[in-house]
Design brief:
The protein is an alpha+beta fold. The chain is 18% helix and 41% strand. The strands form 2 sheets. It has a 3-stranded antiparallel β-sheet with strand order 1-5-2, covered by helices on one side.
């Protein structure tokens, strides 16, 4: 999941359990720096930083996204 950059693992776990009603076993997070983006001729901007959370569910649990 793509999450807010200030969200911690406990908040992510509670949100997933509340939204989907599934038991979360583990949450791993990674932060990614925004990439440089060229604007016009010589001006450089930057895309925003973002955070990814990988959620491991209890055995037998599955989230249906479709």
């Amino acid at each position: 999941f793509r999450v807010a950059t200030d969200a911690n693992k406990i908040e992510i776990k509670q949100a997933v359990e509340k939204l989907f009603g599934k038991k979360v076993v583990r949450v791993n997070t990674a932060q990614y720096a925004g990439k440089k983006k060229r604007e016009r001729r010589a001006d450089f901007g930057r895309k925003t930083h973002w955070k990814k959370a990988v959620v491991t569910l209890a055995e037998g649990e599955k989230i249906e996204l479709a």
